[in-house]
Design goal:
The chain has 232 residues and is an alpha/beta fold. It is 37% helix and 25% strand. A hairpin with a 5-residue loop joins strand 1 and strand 2. Helix 3 crosses helix 4 and helix 3 runs parallel beside helix 5. It starts with a strand and ends with a helix.
């Protein structure tokens, strides 16, 4: 689904933030992206959600060379991608319900289907009583759940999440991780950027470690769930 070959990224004439990045993600895979602060995780995520193009190297997504696509083609590819931004990027003049419903409306879904799907998902993420609240009247954790629901409502082929559980309590964070896990089991490729070592160990997926501008793949240790299954 995604392949990066000798990819580099710099801003303006400054030094490279990413240098000689090489990895590929198979369809239906699940990876955590981690690394020290300032390593370039957000920059790498911006390449993956097509917010930027590499300054060098080859980025291939959904079988297409991103460097050869025009703006309209890039926009069409983005419809297959769900993104949870660290700063949420909600529309403050729209209710929580309408923020989540927006991708479905862009895709031309009927209002009956939109109502059923959005209300079901809002219940799942614990926002069933907050349908008509505006984002700027909600807590940071509530806004984060709205952003996550908006990203997954279309069941995207690729889901990218930047610290999606950072402002959430353990119970809600675990519930949302299980939602990502379910989407993955249905075929969605998932990449989650996080500093949370306990979370990565609990779920036990492969890790992409970003350091010094390059990426290496680390196989997971057995997850807590797998270790318990081995004992019992």
């Amino acid at each position: 689904m995604i392949k990066l070959e000798h990819v580099g990224l710099r801003y303006g004439v400054g030094p490279e933030i990413l240098s000689d990045v090489n990895f590929q993600l198979d369809p239906g895979s699940f990876h955590f992206l981690s690394g020290p602060s300032g390593a370039g995780k957000t920059s790498l995520m911006s390449l993956l959600y097509l917010g930027r193009r590499p300054t060098r190297g080859l980025l291939t997504m959904f079988g297409q060379n991103i460097g050869e696509l025009n703006r309209q083609q890039i926009s069409k590819l983005r419809q297959r991608i769900g993104v949870v931004f660290q700063d949420f990027r909600l529309l403050n003049h729209m209710s929580a319900f309408d923020n989540i419903a927006l991708p479905l409306r862009i895709n031309g879904e009927s209002e009956k289907e939109i109502k059923a799907n959005v209300e079901e998902l809002m219940e799942w993420v614990g926002l069933g009583d907050h349908r008509y609240m505006l984002p700027n009247t909600m807590s940071g954790g509530q806004q984060q759940r709205v952003a996550i629901a908006r990203a997954v409502i279309t069941r995207p082929r690729l889901l990218l999440a930047d610290e999606p559980t950072g402002n959430l309590d353990d119970e809600i964070g675990l519930r949302l991780m299980n939602l990502f896990d379910q989407l993955n089991r249905m075929g969605t490729t998932v990449v989650i950027a996080t500093h949370n070592v306990a979370l990565m160990e609990q779920f036990g997926y492969n890790r992409l470690i970003l350091q010094d501008g390059a990426v290496r793949l680390m196989e997971p240790k057995k997850s807590i769930k797998q270790r318990l299954e081995g004992i019992f």
